[in-house]
Design brief:
The structure is a homodimer. By secondary structure, chain A is an all-alpha fold. In chain A, about 75% of the residues lie in helices and about 0% in strands. The first copy, chain A, has a two-stranded antiparallel ribbon. In chain A, a hairpin with a 2-residue loop joins strand 1 and strand 2. The first copy, chain A, is globular and about 55 Å long. At the A-B interface, helix 4, helix 6, helix 7 and helix 8 of A face helix 4, helix 6, helix 7 and helix 8 of B.
């Protein structure tokens, strides 16, 4: 088993323990959340940034667990905000336990993750501060997304600002956190740590762009959430923005679809026009990542490269299948 | 102007600035929250614990502002959880801006307050840790309250556990935080700081018990929130518990009132039977406070005594008026 894979097992165990020790009112919600765990990409990024050739410090296990629990908290609140019935293939906490419990459960998980960060605040104050100070940016991303619902004129750079808040900020906190741990233990210098923080931001942007594509390319079962629903939900994603930039009349068609609530044709059209240029943008961010990878220790860079490829191989396969259908 | 009153003005200004600097999506919600500010009792407690004869350190202003903003966050989420239409005499954030914005606004304020705590984490790590680690207890209090809705068999000690989470924990964090700042600057010793933390807990219990009484003694206008509604909302408060302990048949009457949703008579009966023994319990906690006040510097003790008396004078006047009606 590789170093990272082994560490991820430890993170899973640590999350299970932390949620398992939660009080009896939280336990059923926590169990439900554990059943619907994601791939842990944020933890993997943190652990990779914190790794050297031989080992991953216990503090990195704790930091990665804190990031994943914080992410769970945001998912629980997102489901309240979006009234989502399904999350990762299971009923959302709100739909299973009600709005009241979902709001409190999210708050509890925020508290739990912050408390784990507090345990390692010393000597990694830079990480603790970054974590805490970025919570507002995450909320801001959500708010910007809300206020741009159905905004077909959303400029590309505003789109980037939204996905930065809703996804890339936490990826940035993850890689930066791992890098700060590495720096403290002498494995990275100041500049490398900063660059690895930027790497996380780029990685998050790619992750969200690929996730946008999944709304068009995957079925509900594979995606473990409803797909082909972004446009219907007023979410202006990148394939839609790119498709509209290719065909000026598409905006009116989307508006017509919104009026009749018939989205089948428009989803097909956006897929055909928008997916390829969207993937091009994702590849451009991957190129930015690879510039940074040349500056950091070889083994760490190799692990990041692998993580990047995994995300792409899945998404591009789906995209190709779909575009050529 | 006294030292504390002057510091409270600074806290108000600091909160206004922090909310004023919030992004344009938060600004209208923040403005609305500023319009419905409470008496700032948590800030006053922190400042009192942080005061010496001559001055209050800037760090205490920041800590007090963080506590008040955190409190605002809990109020915003409480309104979502309880579906309250009114808060402090104005429409709640949820009823004015919708559930989605209320959830995010609460999260944003959590982030803002924690970020202010991070600014003074050094050298007051004990305060920072206490703040962060107690978030879960606050959520737990909310959850216990939810799961004990309509539970007329709620034991007194479970009631205490609930109000500890929903009110006393944050009072505890406030006085403890102030005391840690005082201790660092040589104005309190270790034992005094701990005792002042306990003082906060007792103060919070008293505050919540008096607040319970207000549901019976105040009209909606004076209380700036709906009153005579706890029983109807399934909230088992202390006057109800005490009234039921005085008259064993009262529980059945309450159940009958819940079935017919006619609460007028039962509210009167609970007032007559329950308010006096409830106030007795509040006085007992005040006595516990006064034991601690003997251990701490005289001027600080005098300020705490005044804060205590202010709470009581208001509540007991209302209670007497009501019991003798």
């Amino acid at each position: 088993m590789t170093l990272i894979a082994d560490a991820i097992k430890q993170v899973d165990k640590s999350i299970e323990q932390a949620l398992g020790r939660s009080p009896k009112q939280i336990a059923p919600l926590a169990g439900h959340l554990l059943d619907s765990r994601g791939q842990g990409v944020r933890a993997k990024l943190l652990l990779t940034a914190a790794s050297n050739n031989e080992q991953i410090h216990d503090h990195a296990i704790k930091a990665a667990s804190a990031i994943e629990i914080f992410h769970l908290a945001t998912l629980v609140h997102d489901d309240v905000i979006d009234d989502s019935p399904i999350r990762r293939g299971l009923p959302s906490v709100q739909s299973k336990f009600g709005k009241k419990h979902a709001v409190i459960c999210g708050d509890y998980l925020f508290g739990l993750s912050l408390s784990m960060v507090a345990d390692i605040y010393q000597p990694y104050t830079e990480f603790g501060e970054k974590f805490v100070k970025n919570i507002r940016l995450i909320c801001l991303g959500e708010l910007q997304q809300l206020s741009n619902a159905n905004n077909l004129d959303l400029p590309f750079f505003d789109y980037l600002r939204i996905i930065n808040g809703k996804t890339a900020v936490l990826f940035h906190v993850a890689t930066f956190g791992g890098a700060i741990i590495s720096k403290y233990h002498g494995n990275l210098n100041e500049r490398q740590a900063k660059q690895i923080g930027r790497l996380g931001t780029y990685f998050g942007i790619i992750f969200q762009i690929l996730d946008d594509c999944k709304d068009y390319t995957l079925d509900t079962k594979t995606a473990k959430k409803p797909t082909n629903t972004d446009i219907a939900n007023g979410v202006v994603n990148l394939p839609l923005i790119m498709a509209m930039s290719k065909d000026m009349r598409l905006g009116d068609k989307v508006r017509a679809a919104m009026a009749t609530r018939e989205y089948g044709d428009i989803v097909k059209e956006v897929s055909l026009l928008g997916l390829t240029p969207t993937m091009d943008i994702a590849y451009r961010y991957a190129a930015k990542c690879r510039v940074i990878l040349q500056e950091i220790p070889h083994l760490m860079a190799k692990e990041f490269e692998q993580l990047l490829n995994t995300q792409f191989s899945l998404a591009s396969k789906n995209t190709e299948q779909h575009v050529t259908k």
